[in-house]
Amino acid sequence: EPEVTQTPSHQVTQMGQEVILRCVPISNHLYFYWYRQILGQKVEFLVSFYNNEISEKSEIFDDQFSVERPDGSNFTLKIRSTKLEDSAMYFCASKPGGTGNTIYFGEGSWLTVV
Amino acid sequence: SQKIEQNSEALNIQEGKTATLTCNYTNYSPAYLQWYRQDPGRGPVFLLLIRENEKEKRKERLKVTFDTTLKQSLFHITASQPADSATYLCALVRNSGYALNFGKGTSLLVTP
Hints:
The complex is a heterodimer. Chain A has no helices and eleven strands.
């Protein structure tokens, strides 16, 4: 069964460094997402991406964050100048076209900022 | 503001019993509602979607109800098994229609 794959599974970075989290969504899906889950808290929406542009972003997704789909398969989340509070699990997700479809999540990238 | 509220406390039940989880929402007018399962350290996995014109939806041992008047969904697992132990998330589509908002989830523990 097709799945969303994410790398790395775990990354430790120094505060102030930049990190790039990578995702390969399910092929033929049209909508792509990044979510974040701080330990013990709920899954929070960061950004959605459709037709090669951001379709929506939450208040969390400020100038520190950016997304890119550099080729036909990869979808990346860049976090600049990381802060301690950026430590979280970051989930990539994708969805086929149309309304009412479910969202398929990857297994997450656990980011620890020290 | 929009809110999705789920039982904040963990639910502990005995194997074979029916687990019932609640999702209440405010300031949404959802065309549909979804339930996901999340295991520790893993991504959410879709379980069921119920539309506003459906009162009830079933899938194997799972049953979901949706009451748009009460602004509530109930999620039932019948004949529960220890393998059902997980956190169950309620999700509603954001106003933009592109993404989902999730509740904090209810942790279910099924003991033998």
